[in-house]
Write a structure and sequence with these properties.
The complex is a heterodimer. By secondary structure, chain A is mainly beta. Helices cover about 0% and strands about 50% of the residues of chain A. Chain A is globular. Chain B is mainly beta. Chain B contains no helices and ten strands. Chain B has strands spanning about 5, 10-15, 20-25, 35-40, 45-50, 55, 60-65, 70-75, 85-90, 105. The chains are: A mainly beta, B mainly beta. The interface of A and B includes residues 46 and 50 of A.
Chain lengths: ~120, ~110
């Protein structure tokens, strides 16, 4: 069965960096686009970034562009989110999510499997 | 960016009730819309995609309709496990993929 397991969250000071990981199993990881979605405490869902199946295409929300970098290692079935220059407003649970269908099919932009989330708290 | 709105923001209902949630996009998105259910402390779950396609394993009491800018999620007969928050999400254009603010369904 499909499993997505995030790790790397924690408490970090403003301006510092953190790298999240998402270990995937149960599907052909290298065939699917992958997303990061976050949820601030008590708030709604905010899409953060997407990466194509081969890592050649990456897109970001304006709120993180230039500070966050999404990447993947298909040999390790792992997705990453490098977060630099963190701000208090980046405090959230970060979920990785799998695209419903393979890249270049519009269904790739729906999220059919989600990890359990990892909490990032940015505070001094 | 495409903005998504939902109404109502919350609804109180009883088991067995029919519940309808509306989602509106700030511009036409054809049928590129999904609905998710989220329970407290849990990850969201995909219910409906492409406006009306039921995700595998989701009970048939959930249905979606609409196209263009106006969409609805209907729960035909509310069950105890359906009390949750529901989000719509547009997949028409990106970045960004945008979600609605959510509709909380709670017990009357």
């Amino acid at each position: 069965q499909v499993q997505l397991v995030e790790s790397g969250g924690g408490v970090v000071q403003p301006g510092r960096s953190l790298r999240l990981s998402c270990a995937a199993s149960g599907f052909t990881f290298s065939s699917y686009g992958m997303h990061w979605v976050r949820q601030a405490p008590g708030k709604g869902l905010e899409w953060v970034a997407v990466i194509s199946y081969d890592g050649s295409n990456k897109y970001y929300a304006d709120s993180v562009k230039g500070r966050f970098t999404i990447s993947r290692d298909n040999s390790k079935n792992t997705l990453y989110l490098q977060m630099n220059s963190l701000r208090a407003e980046d405090t959230a649970v970060y979920y990785c999510a799998k695209g419903l269908e393979q890249w270049l099919v519009r269904g790739a932009y729906y999220f059919d499997y989600w990890g359990q989330g990892t909490l990032v708290t940015v505070s001094s | 960016d495409i903005q998504m709105t939902q109404s109502p923001s919350s609804v109180s209902a009883s088991v067995g009730d029919r519940v309808t949630i509306t989602c509106r996009a700030s511009q036409g998105i054809s049928s590129w819309l999904a609905w998710y259910q989220q329970k407290p402390g849990k990850a969201p779950k995909l219910l409906i995609y492409a406006a009306s396609s039921l995700q595998s394993g989701v009970p048939s009491r959930f249905s979606g309709s609409g196209s263009g800018t106006d969409f609805t999620l209907t729960i035909s007969s509310l069950q105890p496990e359906d009390f949750a928050t529901y989000y719509c999400q547009q997949a028409n254009s990106f970045p960004p993929f945008t979600f609605g603010p959510g509709t909380k369904v709670d017990i009357k």
